[in-house]
């Protein structure tokens, strides 16, 4: 069939050549005849030569024809297409050799035109191969490799030709040269090993694989080698390859595949060892949840539930929350299948612990997150873990020495100390926590009295009174505060150490002499102890201070003290001294009520005299509401204890309420309109001011006018009714 096809092709070629020759000869004859005719006409008409037309307009035409347009038109008209050559039959060897010669010449011409076009070389070699000219094809491939030895397709075609023609040694030679020249082309190695395995040369294929593995290829190459060994039941060899594989490609998935390989072949101890080696290999810096999930599932298949629980807890304690979602999910499923309620709660606690860990890592000074975290840890953890978290929390000292930044932080120390005392039952560690805290606080800028007082109370609970006093004394010496003095005094009061209380009050009043509460408490202490003279002296010292924060409270306490002692004359003197300092209406009312409650016969008279004196004194007072308050109190007194004459007298003193208008001004001085307000006009003031008398007469006249109009309207209405 091949010879018949070659013969047909040769016959076609020869017919084409004959046609071309005939066409060429016809064209030549026609050209000669045409040239002969021209010569004859030229000879005949020598005397009349036509004039050549001159081009007058040499400007370019409006429509230009480009070379591309000419070629496109030629293509459209198919002027260059030649009819296919007729088929030719090769009948003898001479014609065949002639055909081969022409064909080779064509291939060689193509190669000579462009040596780098590898497809020409391949076509040439495949044509020689189709003629069973294997040696020639080899020569062509070798020449092509000299041109471009990096061309993968060339090597593949060359080796395939040798294998197709069962030239095994030649094929091996080509594959060896290919993998030596281009060792990173995995296709050569795959083809080579496949050929050797198909030939049954297992040792040769293993040798090729070993050469390949020296180049540390991609993962698929190692898997191919392992599968090759497993096809021949070489499990030990496959294990050795896996050992090298996980070193060259140390990915988690490769370790998992190695362990599953061991598990598949029932080497469970080896599989567990592989997992343990993988965990150790990656360490805590490069932990991966997939490794622990696979490890846990392996142990679950082996019914080692305690091991599974330990693996999950170990991983959850070390892997960040956002990277352990799958781990949590699998752990929850495991506990639901094989665990109890305690185990499920442990999972939830672990999840929350991870959340808090992420929060405190993102912002170590988020003390609220630390409080929540510590509350969780305290509820379900051993003391060492709780202490570790507390130490991490208190290590985040506020960067700014301002009290508002320390208020939340200091509660970490307080909770730490209370935990050590109440939960851990370790007094020595509690004392160390308190001491470390008070040393850390910058007392020169601010302090926390709560911390000192808690420390002192702790020492008292431990029956170390000297330690408690030393702590409070140190606090007062370093950073005296009202709360510290009060706490120390309260402690000594509970211990009934009154001399110490006196000394502390003296120090306290030296520190804050304007604090009225301290003076009152000191005096009350002396009163309780029965030393009224000391109490009175303390009150006298107190009211003699140039500056007081609440003087009215102090005076009231002093007056109440004298009333309790039934020293009414001294009380009156106190009221008189107080009225010299202030003319407040409440002082007058209190003075009057004191005189009323004195319980003597002349108490009503004294009380009425106080009211009268107060009214005279407050005539010049600008605050009319206070004067009205005094008169109302006086009227209530007279209604209860006075006569009708006294009541009328007080009623005459009561003011009239008048509505008035006043002009308002804005901040910039412009007019802001008018405002209505109520004013009080006292009769005593109206007598002294004639304008007020005139106003009162005008009001009276207006009232009379309204009454007259009402009387006139009434008869008119009666007449209308009669007419109707």
TrEMBL record:
Q: Where found in the cell?
A: Nucleus speckle
Q: Spell out the residue ranges making up region: Disordered.
A: 21-47, 704-724
Query: How far does the signal peptide extend, from start to end residue?
Result: none
Task: Name its GO BP terms in alphabetical order.
Answer: spliceosomal complex assembly
| Extent of Acidic residues compositional bias | 708-724
What GO cellular component is one of the record's annotations? Prp19 complex
Q: Which SUPFAM superfamilies match?
A: TPR-like
What positions belong to coiled-coil segments? Answer: 561-631
Q: Which residues form the Pre-mRNA-splicing factor Syf1/CRNKL1-like C-terminal HAT-repeats domain?
A: 119-403, 423-576
Question: Carries keyword Nucleus?
Answer: yes
**InterPro entries found in the cross-reference section:** HAT, HAT_Syf1_CNRKL1_C, Syf1-like, TPR-like_helical_dom_sf
- Keywords linked to the UniProt accession: Coiled coil, mRNA processing, mRNA splicing, Nucleus, Phosphoprotein, Repeat, Spliceosome
Protein's name in the database: Crooked neck-like protein 1
- Which gene is the coding source of this polypeptide chain? CRNKL1
């Amino acid at each position: 069939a091949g010879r018949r096809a070659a013969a047909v092709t040769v016959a076609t070629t020869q017919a084409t050549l004959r046609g071309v020759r005939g066409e060429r000869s016809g064209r030549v004859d026609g050209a000669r005849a045409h040239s002969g005719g021209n010569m004859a006409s030229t000879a005949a008409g020598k005397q009349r030569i036509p004039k050549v037309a001159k081009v007058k307009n040499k400007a370019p035409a409006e429509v230009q024809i480009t070379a591309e347009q000419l070629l496109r038109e030629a293509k459209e008209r198919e002027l260059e297409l030649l009819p296919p050559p007729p088929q030719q039959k090769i009948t003898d060897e001479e014609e065949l050799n002639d055909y081969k010669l022409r064909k080779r010449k064509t291939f060689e011409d193509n190669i000579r035109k462009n040596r780098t076009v590898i497809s020409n070389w391949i076509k040439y070699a495949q044509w020689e191969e189709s003629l069973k000219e294997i040696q020639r094809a080899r020569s062509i491939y070798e020449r092509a490799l000299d041109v471009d030895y990096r061309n993968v397709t060339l090597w593949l075609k060359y080796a395939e030709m040798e294998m197709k023609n069962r030239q095994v040694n030649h094929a091996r030679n080509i594959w060896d040269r290919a993998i030596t020249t281009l060792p990173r082309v995995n296709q050569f190695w795959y083809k080579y090993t496949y050929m050797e395995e198909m030939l049954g040369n297992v040792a040769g294929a293993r040798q090729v694989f070993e050469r390949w593995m020296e180049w540390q290829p991609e993962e698929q190459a190692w898997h191919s080698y392992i599968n090759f060994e497993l096809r021949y039941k070489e499990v030990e060899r496959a294990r050795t390859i896996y050992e090298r594989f996980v070193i060259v490609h140390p990915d988690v998935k490769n370790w998992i595949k190695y362990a599953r390989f061991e598990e598949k072949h029932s080497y469970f101890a080896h599989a567990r060892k592989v997992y343990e080696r993988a965990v150790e290999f990656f360490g805590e810096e490069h932990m991966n949840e997939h490794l622990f999930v696979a490890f846990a599932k392996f142990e679950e298949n082996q019914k080692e539930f305690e091991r599974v629980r330990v693996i999950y807890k170990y991983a959850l304690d070390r892997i960040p929350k956002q990277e352990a979602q799958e781990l949590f999910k699998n752990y929850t499923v495991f506990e639901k299948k094989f665990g109890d309620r305690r185990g499920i709660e442990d999972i939830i606690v672990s999840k929350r612990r991870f959340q808090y860990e992420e929060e405190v890592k993102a912002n170590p000074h988020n003390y609220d997150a630390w409080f929540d975290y510590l509350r969780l840890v305290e509820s379900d953890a051993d003391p060492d873990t709780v202490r570790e978290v507390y130490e991490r929390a208190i290590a985040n000292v506020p960067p700014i020495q301002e009290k508002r930044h320390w208020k939340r932080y200091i509660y970490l120390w307080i909770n730490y100390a209370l935990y050590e005392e109440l939960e851990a039952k370790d007094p020595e560690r509690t004392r160390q926590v308190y001491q470390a805290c008070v040393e850390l606080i910058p007392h020169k800028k601010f302090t926390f009295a709560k911390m000192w007082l808690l420390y002192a109370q702790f020492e008292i609970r431990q029956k170390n009174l000297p330690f408690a006093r030393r702590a409070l004394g140190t606090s007062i010496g370093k950073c005296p505060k009202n709360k510290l003095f009060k706490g120390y005094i309260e402690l000594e009061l509970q211990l009934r150490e009154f001399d110490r209380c006196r000394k502390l009050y003296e120090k306290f009043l030296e520190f804050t002499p304007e604090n009225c509460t301290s003076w009152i408490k000191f005096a009350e202490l002396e009163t309780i102890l029965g030393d009224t003279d000391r109490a009175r002296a303390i009150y006298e010292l107190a009211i003699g201070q140039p500056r007081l924060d609440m003087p009215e409270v102090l005076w009231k306490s002093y007056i109440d003290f004298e009333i309790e002692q039934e020293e009414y004359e001294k009380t009156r003197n106190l009221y008189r001294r107080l009225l010299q300092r202030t003319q407040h209406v409440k002082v007058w009312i209190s003075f009057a009520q004191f005189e009323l409650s004195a319980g003597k016969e002349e108490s009503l008279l004294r009380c009425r005299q106080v009211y009268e004196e107060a009214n005279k004194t407050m005539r010049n007072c600008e605050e009319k509401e206070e004067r009205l308050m005094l008169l109302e109190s006086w009227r209530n007194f007279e209604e209860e204890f006075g006569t009708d004459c006294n009541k009328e007298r007080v009623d005459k003193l009561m003011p009239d309420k008048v509505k008035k208008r006043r002009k308002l001004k804005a901040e910039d001085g412009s007019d802001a309109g008018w405002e209505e307000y109520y004013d009080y006009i006292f009769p005593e003031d109206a007598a002294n001011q004639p304008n007020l008398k005139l106003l009162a007469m005008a009001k009276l006249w207006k009232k009379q006018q309204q009454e007259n109009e009402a009387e006139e309207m009434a008869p008119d209405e009666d007449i209308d009714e009669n007419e109707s």
